[in-house]
Amino acid sequence: MISAFGTRSRPRQVLLAVAGAVLGTLAVLEGLNAPLGPVALLTAGSGLLCVGTLLVADRPLPRRVVWAAAASGLVTVVGALVAQRAENTPGGVETGALLCLIACVVRRCPPRQAVALSAVLAAVVVALPLRLEARDSITLGVMVVLACFAVPLMVALGLCLRLRDTLRVREREAVLREQRLEYARDLHDFVAHHVTAIVARTRAARFAAGAGKAPSAQDLDRMLAQIEEAGSQALGSMRSMVSSLRDTSAPAPTRPPGDLRSLRELADEFAATGLRPEVALDPRLTDRPLPPQVHSTVHRVVQEALTNVRRHAAGAERVKVRVALRPDGKLEAEVTDDGGAPAAAAPADGAGFGLVGLTERVEEAGGTLTAGPRPGGGWRVLAVLPSRTAAPPA
Known about the structure:
Strand order of the largest sheet: 1-2-3-5-4
Low-confidence stretches: 1-7, 250-258, 342-351, 389-394
Structural class: alpha+beta
Protein name: histidine kinase
Mean pLDDT: 76
Keywords: ATP-binding, Kinase, Nucleotide-binding, Phosphoprotein, Transferase, Two-component regulatory system
Largest sheet: 5 strands, mixed
CATH superfamily of the domain at 258-394: Histidine kinase-like ATPase, C-terminal domain
Radius of gyration: 36 Å
Distance between the termini: 65 Å
Pfam families: HATPase_c (PF02518), HisKA_3 (PF07730)
Oligomer: single chain
CATH topology of the domain at 258-394: Heat Shock Protein 90
Number of helices: 10
CATH architecture of the domain at 258-394: 2-Layer Sandwich
Number of strands: 5
GO molecular function: ATP binding; phosphorelay sensor kinase activity; protein dimerization activity
EC number: 2.7.13.3
Shape: rod-shaped
């Protein structure tokens, strides 16, 4: 019954309705077992109230529990004071419903409220056998069993369910936090890369115009075409992310292709700003199968490093991209330049999260990332990644 609390599907609602009808009928039959008519009606009503409170325990609970406990306690007091009492079945269904309510309040109510309500329910449950005609050792034994075993068991059950709910909430929050980080990385890796290209090409056009060298119609058309291409790529990346967020059953491909030869396409995009990187790709990696996460991470490392060169490496004349296998079988991706300002410096426009997200991505793939100045000037970004399927050189 307790596991049915919360959001209920239609089959569960049908099941609870059937269970409620059965338990309600049993509670009425037990109540009618009392010899006096008024006491029988009170007992049946109390049993129905307790069962109903249990079945709607996902609604606001404390007030309903108080009313159920008060009704049950009142019937117990009346049944204990009258001269004619029932010889058996003082309210077995009612007792079970009250015990389940103990577990429910421990699971769902705040700690102080749960302690108070559990104590009230425990007292009402232990006192239920006083409705019986006989006041002998059997009645006392039933009360001891309820107090020493049944009530603590339901409290423990409620604590276990409360702990499970807490762990589920924390797990869900962790998953959402990881998703937010992933979306932030994707936005930076894809959109910021293309937008930076747009800004760089626009600045180049403005610089040329400001220097008194008005571009020809052909040069102007070429610059605008490059800006248009970068904008289209940014829109395509955004569209892919939105598609994956809107349709989880068929997510759009938001990651770069697994072929490392696509690094040359990155170099061509970067070269459109005026500086062509030197790409050195190990021939053994051209057609060698690598884990998809390694392909994706290498692509992101090179993309982010080239974006930082465009942003921060003032006066760079040489940029080199190198991807190779090390003797120990690990894959090494390195991007170096001979520019000025360090690429890790956060510019005034609020950027600077690229290397942070890149480090997280590389570590998630089981690798390490180092970034820092080179001896003699320039900047170096180096990622070392595991390569389970790539064999070391002979």
